[in-house]
Amino acid sequence: MDAIKALGQIEEQREFNFSAQDFKYIQDFMLRETGISLSERKNSMVYGRLARRLRRTGIDNFPDYFARVESDIDERVAFINALTTNKTQFFREKHHFDYLAQTMVPQWQQQNKKRIRIWSAGCSTGEEPYTIASTLASCGLLSGGYDCKILATDLDTQVLEVAQNGTYGIEATKVIPENILRYGFIRGKGQKQELLKVKPSVRQAITFKQLNLTAHWPHKGPLDAIFCRNVMIYFEKDMQQQLIYRFWEKLGSGGILFIGHSESIGQMGNRFENLGQTMFRKLIACIHSGLKSEQSLCMHKILELTGCPIGAGARRFFHPGKQMMMVKIQPGEVYVTSERELISTGLGSCISACVWDPFIELGGMNHFMLPFGDADDIAGWDPTQWRSNAARYGNYAMELLINTMIQQGAIKSRLRVKLFGGGMVMGKHANIGEKNIQFIRNYVKDEGLTLVGEDLGSEFPRKVVFDPMTGKAWVKKLRGYRGEVEVEERNYKRRLVNEAKRDDGESAELF
């Protein structure tokens, strides 16, 4: 009771009436617009910061001020800026930058890695990205042919203006080691001798951008490191896990996530190697499945491994022309990945659907055909017969690919599709390719998928190479390999037909 009376006395002393409903509106707004969760103990802090906005705008009550926030984009930005916390300093949690300089940089140099991409998420007034850039400069990575770029983002536009200016008081820079200070800053002269300015070479390595972490991210390629420190503590647990998953997606193979000393990665721990001191290395998670018969009524186990998927070790190799890793899949297989790697296969009458979600840079490929036993089966089959024995294998091949992608964060409405194969390469069964084409075109149309390209038909086999992150595909006709492809597909067809015969009479549904 005494606490309630004390709270009432505080509210009586306030310049503006601030009700529980007002605070609830602010909590809901910030959670909806920014993902930030404001606890009840933030009540006084929120009032104090927003009272200044009411005075500045000349509005004398919170409901009217909220109406301004809803209708005026500039005031909406000022509202969010007022409620975001921006405490930071140079070399905060110094062990992170020691690891960058003493472990990551030597590894990059040993690998002759020239392209470096780092993200400072929640950069505040710039101390963190300038610390990163100065550290890289001291290691020689901002010159000598290196392509180092740092993206520095924050929700607060006011702190970004400070960061872009790159000028700091000398007291703030006293924590910077002397050997790094000289690479990153220039001391002012005369009236500005108590100020330090970031060197142009360091400033040019950084792009500052306003970004809401809960919205779309602009990165186009894999990142080598992400610094998101003492930011996630302001989000609810579910949102924290969503962010960490998205960080994992954006990191390249072996990329490092740095978080704050009071933060953890929770349930996402199986996707990272814990390096200690809130540093986490991304583990390579590949998904590799074989298309099994309906008799099993389930797909192969999804394997998340450090390294290559089981059964594909001999088929995962470095492609010197593309300067990337490549995985080759065989008939009856599916491969889904968010890694910076290529997927390839050789096709005769079989079909490969290359599917990707451009928003999260996740994609995959399958390799399948429909199991026709003889020429009569082929001649009598109608591609609209979705319940037929043959069609169910095609459905399974497509659903396994698409559902696996959805499990990894893809959204069906965003999926893009390219189709390949359906060649006439199997002698008396040459029109198997034609039936495969009819099936896949009907499937894509009926499922409402977005088809953006196809290379179907032809009398020759083809090799397809697919980039699952960008959706690019390369096709080469294999005029001299028709016999090899035909033998491989005949063996695959024989297995499918035998499995289909065993499945006859089974009452179980595949899905």
What can you tell me about this protein's structure?
37% of the residues lie in helices and 22% in strands. The protein is of the alpha/beta class and 511 residues long. The protein has 3 domains: 82 residues, Orthogonal Bundle (Chemotaxis Receptor Methyltransferase Cher, domain 1); 189 residues, 3-Layer(aba) Sandwich (Rossmann fold), CATH 3.40.50; 217 residues, 60s Ribosomal Protein L30, Chain: A, CATH 3.30.1330.200. Helix 4 crosses helix 5, helix 6 packs across helix 7 and helix 7 packs across helix 9. The longest helix has 22 residues. The chain is globular, with a radius of gyration of 29 Å. The N terminus and C terminus are likely disordered.
Question: Layout of helices and strands, plus pairs?
Answer:
Blueprint: H1 2-13, H2 20-34, H3 43-57, H4 62-71, H5 73-83, H6 94-110, E1 115-121, H7 127-138, E2 147-154, H8 157-165, E3 167-169, H9 178-184, E4 185-187, E5 195-198, H10 200-203, E6 206-210, E7 223-228, H11 237-250, E8 251-259, E9 272-276, E10 279-282, E11 287-290, E12 316-319, E13 324-328, E14 333-337, E15 341-347, E16 351-357, E17 362-366, H12 375-379, H13 389-407, E18 416-421, H14 432-446, E19 450-456, E20 462-466, E21 473-477, H15 482-503
Parallel strand pairs: 1-2, 1-7, 2-6, 7-8, 13-15, 18-19
Antiparallel strand pairs: 3-5, 4-5, 8-10, 9-10, 11-14, 12-13, 14-17, 15-20, 16-17, 16-18, 20-21
Helix pairs in contact: 3-5, 4-5, 6-7, 7-9
